[in-house]
Specification:
By secondary structure, the chain is an alpha+beta fold. It contains 14 helices and eleven strands.
């Protein structure tokens, strides 16, 4: 809970301070008339703009990162086009997030960066020194993490929270898993996605198919897959060579699993067609999946029946406002002046409000870490102080707890998580395609 080629894009921002030989005399009026390019708009995205300098900086940053990751660089012109499209989509996402009142305040951001430092086993001072050694300005890094968190919250709202999984889907998954033993193997895949617009015309589909064919032709001619992915793929992992990482087969689209079933490591599939567009998949490697200890499934697990009241932070409700409101509500609850479920129905900004804030029985890992830590510290019937999470501020009450052998329930939970992961990836790609299609974009440079 996240790159020295700028001279190829932009002309010098100012004239050189000195030259080898004296220049011819120029009148003052002529000198004033000679314009100098400081920056230029290359794309309008709804009500925002992307400038040449912004694209040049992004190109430089990404180039440095790809070199550090030993990813072969595609032609600069192709990479520049890919980056511009990526920036357009990011601007559209940020605009939508702001329209929906989403934001990441400084306190939440500092905590996230603190966790990143901890994961790297560094103090904040050492972490900032490391960034300086890597020539990454800390303020720029901070804003990059803020944007990543903002977009993650947006995707949770627009995609994750809308995914539904039926009990019959879980039943079918468990049956198929038992007969096919899908967890017996893990695959390391890389992908190229050539996205097709929603409700695309025949000409648009033909153009995208041609682009996929061009990518495939380069692969067949011995081109580097990672470099081709960086130049052609519309997937979010394009700039890391399309690498999807190691995954068990149940956590991959069935289209991909079937496509690589008979491939040897290093081989590439043909062009695949789905609702999102055209895909090319490379099997990098495969291995036997690590098996869990036999007694893990039977181990007792504590479940918590919990409810909460959530106040979200918005442009009109500050973090201080949210916390103050919850303190007022807690005081009423402590004085038995109101019932928890009634206050949840009236004040909570969560879908559970209609059920009195009841989240039902939750397992470890079902909630975000901040919520879970606060929940675990409570006794049944006890109400927490206001707790901050990525979603806002919560009052949490533990209703009851139970610990028993829930091996079958854990099996269903694992199945549900696998189905959710697979659905989330497909739904995110579909949502991004729809967002891009409804975004107004005006290119100011004929090359793009």
């Amino acid at each position: 809970m996240a790159q020295a080629v700028s001279s190829q894009i932009t002309p010098p921002l100012v004239a050189p301070a000195a030259v080898a030989a004296p220049a011819p005399a120029v009148s003052a009026s002529a000198a004033k008339a000679a314009p100098q390019t400081v920056d230029a708009i290359i794309a309008v995205v709804n009500t925002d703009v992307i400038t040449q300098q912004e694209l040049a900086k992004r190109l430089n940053d990404v180039t440095q990162r790809m070199k550090a990751q030993n990813v072969e660089l595609p032609p600069v012109a192709e990479l520049q086009k890919q980056l511009l499209e990526r920036m357009i989509l990011e601007r559209a996402e940020v605009q939508l997030a702001k329209e929906n009142g989403l934001s990441v305040d400084d306190v939440m951001l500092d905590r996230a960066i603190g966790r990143i430092a901890e994961q790297n086993k560094m103090s904040m001072a050492d972490f900032q020194k490391q960034l300086a050694q890597d020539k990454i300005p800390y303020p720029a890094f901070r804003e990059e993490i803020r944007q990543e968190m903002l977009l993650q919250r947006l995707r949770e709202r627009e995609v994750d929270n809308k995914i539904q999984i039926s009990e019959s889907e879980v039943d079918n998954y468990i049956t198929a898993d038992s007969s096919n033993k899908q967890n017996g193997q893990e695959l390391d895949l890389a992908q190229i996605l050539v996205r097709v617009p929603e409700n695309a015309t025949a000409d648009q589909i033909a153009q995208r198919a041609k682009r996929a064919e061009e990518a495939m032709q380069q692969i067949r001619s011995g081109g580097n897959f990672a470099s081709i992915a960086a130049a052609y793929s519309d997937s979010t992992d394009a700039l890391t060579g399309g690498d999807m990482g190691w995954r068990t087969q149940d956590r991959l689209p069935s289209l991909y699993v079937e496509a690589v079933a008979n491939l040897a490591p290093g081989q590439v599939s043909g062009i695949l067609k789905s609702a999102n567009g055209f895909h090319i998949v490379k099997l990098i490697n495969k291995r036997a999946a690590a098996s869990a200890p036999k007694d893990t499934a039977a181990a007792p697990v504590q479940q918590t029946h919990v409810r909460h009241i959530l106040i979200k932070v918005t442009p009109t409700v500050t973090a201080a406002d949210a916390r103050r409101r919850l303190l007022d509500l807690k005081e009423r609850l402590d004085n038995n002046a109101a019932k928890f479920e009634d206050l949840a129905k009236q004040y909570s900004n969560d879908l559970s409000a209609s059920k009195g804030g009841d989240l039902g029985w939750v397992y470890p890992g079902d909630t975000v870490p901040e919520f879970e830590r606060a929940m675990d510290a409570l006794k049944p019937g006890q109400i927490s102080d206001p707790i901050e999470s990525p979603f806002g501020y919560h009052l949490i009450q533990v209703v009851e707890r139970k610990t028993n052998d829930v091996s079958k329930e854990r099996q269903r939970l694992a199945a549900r998580m696998a189905i959710r992961e697979r659905k989330t990836e497909e739904a995110t790609n579909d949502w991004l395609r729809q967002l891009r299609d409804r975004t107004y974009v005006e290119y100011r440079n004929d090359d793009h």
